[in-house]
Amino acid sequence: MELIFPKIDGMLIADRIYHKPKKQDPLIPDIDIDHLYHIGYPSVIENKTELVLSTDLGDIKHNIPETVFGEAIRILFVSDLAGTTVDVKSRLFGKNLRKPIERDLKIEVVDF
Q1: What is residue 89's DSSP assignment?
Q2: Residues with Cβ < 8 Å from 9, sequence gap 6 or more?
Q3: Hey, which of 15, 21, 27, 109 has its CA 20 to 30 A from 77?
Q4: Domains identified in the chain, total number
Q5: What string of pLDDT tens digits covers the 112 residues of the chain?
């Protein structure tokens, strides 16, 4: 599964989930658990014109709803983009599909 976002000034998509900094005794070794924060978050690849978010869904059943990402995508829009719409393309790949299923999605940016 892929979501393809256009690169837009004022839109940021996190490439991973960042955890809160820890305040702990400097004499106690820090255990590296950063890899646990990536579980369920899509991989994010950036090229010149777009950001591609992808994940492997494994085997899915026909007409059964499926959660695509185990973690919500972290997207930030600056307030200048309020009132605009971002066009996103989705692609679903499958062994039994000759070509991917493609759909166009829209995100309406609102100011709150």
Answers
A1: E
A2: none
A3: 21
A4: 1
A5: 999 999 999 999 999 887 776 666 666 666 655 555 567 899 999 999 999 999 998 888 888 888 888 889 999 999 999 999 999 999 999 888 899 999 999 999 998 7
CA proximity to 68, closest of 41, 94, 87: 41
Q: Which domain holds residue 100?
A: 2-108
Structure tokens at 86: 């971002």
pTM > 0.85: yes or no: no
Q: How long is the chain? A: 112
Residue 17 contacts residue 41 (beta carbons within 8 Å): yes
